[in-house]
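Ticket 4471: requesting a sanity check on a complex prediction with adenosine-5'-diphosphate. Repro inputs:
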Amino acid sequence: MTGQFAEGALVGVLTTQPLGRVLDYRAPEGGCALGDFVEVPLGPRRVLGVVWGGPQGGFDPAKCRPIGRVLDAPPMRDEMRAFLARAADYTLTPLPAMLRLATRAPGLGDPPATRRVYRLGGDVPARATEARLRVLDVLRAYGGAAVTLAELLAEAGVGASVVKGLVKTGAVVEEDAPRDLPYPPLNPDRQGPRLMGDQVMAGDALVAAVAMGGYGTTLLKGVTGSGKTEVYLEAVAECLRQGRQALVLLPEIALTAEFLERVEVRFGARPAEWHSGVTMTERRRLWQMVAAGQAGFVAGARSALFLPFRDLGLVVVDEEHDTSYKQEEGVLYHARDMAVLRAAIAGCQVILASATPSLESWANAEAGKYTRLDLGARFGVAELPDMRAIDMRGEKLPSDRWISEPLARAVDARVAAGEQALLFLNRRGYAPVTICRACGHQVGCDDCDARMVEHRFLKRLVCHQCGATKPMPLACPSCKVEGRMAPVGPGVERLAEEVAARFPTARVAVLSSDLFGSARALKEQIGAIAAGGADIIIGTQIVAKGHNFPLLTLVGVIDADLGLQGSDLRAAERTFQLMRQVAGRAGRRDKPGVALLQSYQPEHPVIRAILGGDEEAFWRAEADERRIAGVPPYGRMAGIILSSPDVAQVFDFGAELARRDGPLRRIGAQVFGPAPAPIARVRGRHRVRLLVKADKGAPLQAALAEWVAQLKQPANLRLAIDIDPQSF
Ligand code: ADP
Ligand code: ZN
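Returned structure tokens:
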């Protein structure tokens, strides 16, 4: 196939509408080509689509309608179509839903919006008013280049009428300019910091890999502060030198601002930014520029993987172990895995950077599929913080206090020295449980299988599952006794009370995602803390992610055992990663750090591994357990989540599915359940889960598709397939 279709020829068009299949249309006047964005009639509507291939057949050719118009947008490249198709197959997502991810550019196909710009005209008067002369001076300084009205008014310090007056005289020319101005170029040859020690070899290896081109994945492992970012920015520099495009994925918007500033220092300009906080206009511009190859460097959220890069040369997944890379709603995909797939199709390098890699990436490196590069010591600091456990069994704390004496003394000492201490507790709100002291009733959410969490700042109880809130009840909703409702257990807000009482003169800051209205407010608070605006920081897991607090020398973990309960096979891995990340916040550069972990089971193997046991031995032991259990990364898994307002229906349907396991048995896969899902009720819908386990090489997706297609779903029942579920 040439990819060109003459007027009237039948072509297959994929639309963004949930029909699940490619539809046949006739090429419009002037013909069309593979990858063209088009507008096609669908019923009474006109919808967005892409010319996906030749005709699919199965339609009456006489009834195939012509394509409405070919949009004025850069056509989708073969590479992107291949990526969407492969991603759809892997995640068992209908193609239209994948296409929607790739067309999140507002106004796709509309002519670029224009705006008025100004430059010096021919009839420049010799004499003019003071204000007019200032305008002319500014334009002269631009040497014939066009300036926007906003810039011109700001620089000349005049009102718009002055400029309009000059336009009338012919001294200034007004014209239209496309809004989509190019991004300022980045200069890869500006001198970055000189790499040192292990950084040199890692940097050289990555630069060489990018220079050589072709696909390859590298796991870049090194403790926080070891210089991973500096090293991968060298690879980005090489990519830019080659004239190719680089993409860096970050797990959180709050981290982007810091990153952008750092890139500006390194390359003289900022990368383009892509995430949910970016304006529509800006997104549109970015999408166009990326497609035109004029945005050389993009930093953003996981959805940036679906941008139409013209010549992708490098993808970096920073903090690759981060759980937020898994999209848990809509299309269920893991950005790390999709980054590797995207790069394999584009034929480019991927760097997965982390201090505490996922077991998946660790195992891929062990198996030789990924190259592994280790950065040893932290830059300028001898080693990891000194980590110790505080055995809480000996502490005899009253039931409403959580800071042990040894931890309190350590905080006192740091604050007295003008340094900062971080108290880490991964629980938002005031108290995780509200209980009636008369009857034992615990307040739960009306719509979810979850306890309501008291939030004192909001003065309400909040469901962390669905966000529903209700006032704190005076009387028990169950036994109606008044005045006996009591908080049980600590959240960061309650810990803040204890800190205020125990350290009355210290300046305290609480960092919890729910306490900030916007990413900007959070960023400002983080900036203020970094600059020394607090003595004691109380934080949830947002503090574990990459933020730089130069004065922080002590980390106290309030409850190191928190993640170890439950039956999830990933609990050990997650706890290890989180504790190591948090501890890594202590001590940068010249100030050595200390991390104290409060635990009721300090002899637990995971706690011991965190405390500086042999890290590789920990990963090997974890790997062995997973291998024996036959679960990822040594086996394959999928979760099937069924949900319905009708609890009997959802269990019956699940049981019937489990009975008809023929297609699964044929590939040697097993099905477990139905069992209540990890969260058994959300927003009034009952949820059950089936887990499917298969051997590593088994054709799981095909079998799953055949399996679930056997049963027709009732209208109010939803079925979602989660390949590689995050908990099992
Ligand atoms: P990581 O990404 O591993 O946390 P960074 O790249 O952020 O580490 O490095 C930590 C700090 O040390 C940063 O402020 C960085 O600029 C600095 N740094 C790292 N390597 C060097 C180097 N070779 N020369 C100068 N400063 C460095
Ligand atoms: Zn709820």
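Notes from triage: The two ends are 45 Å apart (CA to CA). Leaving this open until the requester confirms.
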